[in-house]
Fold these 4 entries.
Entry 1:
Amino acid sequence: MTNPQATTSPRTRDQRRADTLAMLSTPVRDVWVATASVADDGTAVPYLVPLSMAWIDDRVVLALEATSRTGRNLLATGTGRLSLGGTRDVVMIDADLERSVRVAEAPPEIAEGYAAQADWDPRPGGADDVYLVLRPRRIQAWREVDELPGRLLMCDGEWL
């Protein structure tokens, strides 16, 4: 099966940015979240998990247990890599942890915004649940090999 997007010309940076923002703000959007920790012997221990997300005020918001491996890794290192879409229409985000907010203490813009976009509400959950607010530092987007040049859309937290 051929990819119908393969017959089109590469998107402009403006179109890629618009497509990326549309993907980020789509309701019920899941994201792959990659984090890492360091084992006792000094080796890196990567971890990858799918999570629901919300795009609120130009930030990725995740809801999870602070004690989960992803929660512990993000809280300890302050960084993660996120991926949206499939391999032929991907958005890669390198992000920094801006803040952690206990679900029970979250301001309405985070709690209600997350529940509305993610299509589930963690507020009735456990006491260890937190919202992690991630600030994108670098964003890349591409569909096919012809879009690899120019895939960088954001650098140092600024749209190009």
Entry 2:
Amino acid sequence: MTDDTTPEAPTTEPTGRALALRVAVGDIERHVAARGWDGPVAVFALVRTTDALAATPALGEELPADALAAAERDPEHLTSIEQEGLPAAETIEELLGQLGWPEEVDGAAVVLERMVVPPEAEQGLPEDQEEAVEQLMAHPERQDVRMAAGVLRSGESWCAIRSRRHDSDDAVAGSADAVPGLVEALHATLR
């Protein structure tokens, strides 16, 4: 029995497109995780599988059977294509600032690793950059994380974060805005 005076919390179900992006980002994160830690930045184009197969039927011979079956069940299913030969860049912002995608690309994803320390660890750091990095690397509360973020032209985003300390597929956290700066920079590559 429900109390008519108590408003029910609105339930916001993710769209099929948002769910497809979650699956794609999760698959990408696990793919990169299988390579181990301390890897380079990885960038992926995201394309709707059914559209890619219509444009390039031979692609059906290259995709795994489970991806083809998923695309048959879900027209929003996404295929990720890792990009090789990325331009040289000192920072992730510089790298993403150099990227642009043709209209056939429905979205983009990036995977990178970062060191995270509590805010107080950054107080009183030495002026010398190398000494400051050494001090942060030695901090007892330092955590290494792998962040995967994906966005679609239609506005959806999803982020997955894995900690080296809890390096397990079932310990990967996710949300649409876990890494807002990275999401924003990725969206800019699609404009």
Entry 3:
Amino acid sequence: MEILLVEDEPSVISLIERGLKGENHSISVAMDGFTGLKMAGLNQYDLIILDVMLPGMNGLEICRNIRKTNKDVPILILSALNQTEDIVEAFNRDADDYLTKPFKLDELRARINRQSRKARQQTTTSNTITIDNLVMDRDSKNVQRGGKSVILTATEYRLLEYLMVNKNKILSRVDILEEVWGMDFNMSTNVVDVYVNYLRKKIDHPTEKKLIHTVIGMGYILRNEN
């Protein structure tokens, strides 16, 4: 994979470069935010890893700017900030994954490999999913409910896609965290509930028929009650 690493700590840069050496990854490094954003715009990368606290421009601003022109490149946030609100804010900027410092190289490798698998799977899965009058085109990443377009962030889209692929199946919060966010951290975080509520406001609230349901004590399910 062609990876852009935007990180200003030499020790972290060295750790990642050494840790990924020999795994068919090519790593380009930017040590400040402005350089990172410029490199992201000029080159094609398979993955971008962003620190949050950077000179010039922080990683969340870089992520927001990248998404203006590139909706598809996977972005992994690497940060010492580990509160729920920090994580939610990163996904609100359309990051794909979030890994807190200090981290283990094995976990970083696993997350990179996961993004690579997701990219391959997107080329082999069915292009359109339909449940009742909710339609998702996985090629264009367009979602419609009742013929009207629904504008979703990248994280909201991934969550809805996971619910739709697993329609009529109860998904626990742990299942959703692992699949949508690729996370294994404090299970007390309410990031799943926050994003389910975001989805409900866009998918269900404008209509009388609700598709996203809570199963108390178990998780969430997307189903057509008819």
Entry 4:
Amino acid sequence: MTWLVTGGAGYIGAHIVRALGAAGLEPVVIDDLSSGHEGFVPAGVPFVRGTILDRELVERTLREHHVEGVIHVAGFKYAGVSVQRPLHTYAQNVEGTRVVLEAMDAAGVTNLVFSSSAAVYGTPHVDLVVEDTEKHPTSPYGQSKLIGEWLIADQGVATAGSEHPLRHTSLRYFNVVGSGDAAVYDTSPHNLFPLVFEALLAGKTPKIFGDDYATEDGTNVRDYVHVADIAAAHVVAAQRLAGAQPIEPAYNLGSQNGLSVREIMDAMARVTGIDFTPEISPRRPGDPDRIVATGELAARDLDWANRYSVDEMVRSGWEARRAAGHAQADSSRS
């Protein structure tokens, strides 16, 4: 069975590609490399360089590789930056999703796993988010992911009585961290883990963006989940769709245990052996105080579990980033 992974050359997408291969499924990748890396795509996996906004390219890829389903990861995922770049965010995340749906419909591809986000909830006024918690996104990024879910649900309704009814689920995940393969690491210039790693490697002091939030220590509280667990859940979702098994329209991939940014900083110092006191910088726009979710539904249906401690999350990410640095140094000397 062949599955197309949009954004499969990115940090999360590349882990999903590996998980698909390990499960005996055949992945195909389409990515414009705006934030992904062709080197993240495993050898032997077909790679199509291009944008999901190119409907003809997406449809041709679906047909040529006899794709059974799509795991739609591609998108612009930076919540804070989306506040300054709303038009770009909506083009990539809303129009991009519409084009993927249109290409799937034309090619008769009926299974879709959508990589959504906890950002659809905004700043929830509950201790634990569940799937039907009210949605109040606080950034264009969160809005775009919610609209993407609406588009997919509407297409499911529209095609329900057709020859090719769309079967779908949306996986809302939280702060994805760590590494499940030394060849793949988070290269985002905005995510907490890579920001800290790059600062430590450069001999600089990591920053905390805001310490005046309504939390116990004043820093954001988030649900940190390991990328390998995220990837595994996508594969099970794909298998359930392909097997025509019952599936919910959306799942939270949460840990039920929040960690503050300051607690993450403490783990960083512990694991790396580099002692530091974080520098406090102003808040970033679009960042809520706290968001933590239960993953009970996903545990029931998608074999979802949090298999890594915070130190293991940090260690796996740190080791992958250092391995990449060593590889780059060796390449420059050759």
